[in-house]
Design goal:
This protein has about 120 residues and is α+β, with helices and mostly antiparallel strands. The chain is built from two helices and five strands, in the order βββααββ. The longest helix has 13 residues. Bound molecules: zinc ion.
């Protein structure tokens, strides 16, 4: 009878290559505008008259002294060179510490003066 054992023609792909027009991905550049408010840089460790960037009032800054790494460094040096009661000296000296300026009106942090 009819012999159906003939091999089917090998499946050949048509020479069709989809034209891939390269489209660059849409560049979604997220431009981050950093609103860096003009940072007030305190010029001394004394209360300074400024315009508060937060409440825009003319204020005399409130200064809080904070021990920084230099303070600890001095304390260690004084402790080693002299004697241990000297440790407290740098912590008592404002000039050895950071001066953080705050607004007395709105309590906003304004800036740090480092010696
Ligand atoms: Zn303020």
């Amino acid at each position: 009878m009819s012999d159906f054992g003939k091999n089917p023609p090998p499946y050949s792909q048509p020479g069709y290559t989809p034209a891939q027009t390269y489209q660059p991905p849409p560049t979604t550049e997220t431009v981050i505008i950093q609103t860096t408010s003009p940072a007030f840089v305190p010029v001394s460790n004394e209360p300074t008259r400024i315009t508060c960037p937060s409440c825009h009032a003319q204020v005399l800054t409130k200064v809080e002294h904070q021990a920084n790494s230099r303070t600890h460094c001095w304390a260690l040096i004084l402790c080693l060179v002299f004697c241990w009661p000297c440790v407290c000296v740098p912590y008592c000296m404002d000039s050895c510490q950071n001066a953080n300026h705050y607004c007395p009106n709105c309590n906003a942090f304004i800036g740090t003066y480092t010696n």
